[in-house]
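Task card 7
Instruction: Convert sequence to structure tokens.
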Amino acid sequence: MSRTSNTLIIGKVLEHYEKCSSTNFVAKQILAKSTPPDGMVVSTDNQTEGRGQYGNQWQSEAYQNLAFSVILYPRILISEQFYLSKIASIACVEALNSITNLDFQIKWPNDIYFKNKKVGGLLIENQIIGEQIGNSVVGIGINLNQEKFEGLPQASSIYLLVRYLLNRKKCLEIILEHLDVWYLKLKQGKFQTIDQAYYSYLMGFQEIITYMENGTKKTGKLKGVNQTGQLLVEENGQHRQFDFKTIEWVFSL
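Output:
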């Protein structure tokens, strides 16, 4: 267990494992047995059973990437829970942009992309107490130095984009510093500030996007994301709301 020095909340306590099934699973075990401090981080060199959102498998080579989870007590309403995804996504994008001088974006609902290549993703699991989010485990996976992704044509890594190896510990510290800033804004109720930053990084915002719905290719203008996390699209003059996994993004390769 170690501590970081450049944050107020996030990562002041960090528990690292050489190998574990998933950092979200370990974090939830810790929560089940104790009350860890707000912002505690669980990280690993080798995540053997990593998951993405909705049960998708997360392929990550040992000792090459970042896999970590952050335990939070946001005390926000259930209806505001997508703000956790917003701040975590913003933090990842801003950190990666500062590290590489590239322009990473947030692909709705929970992925980190550079152009048409996915380099990271989130898995957020919340425990509800009354009408609030009592605690949250924010799992983050970032492909840093991995060179090959079998059967995943959309996947990439920072190394494949910049062609030099990155210091995993330093990259983790930078992401945690950015997350610390945005978590404090969430705790202060600065939702408008968060929204402005989120839309500045949201892939396709106010642009015509192409997507598949029930096997049919469609186009529409991406208008934003509502409070519960639904994607808002204007399609043929009609305003539509899409839940997670109901549409699939079509990239222009």
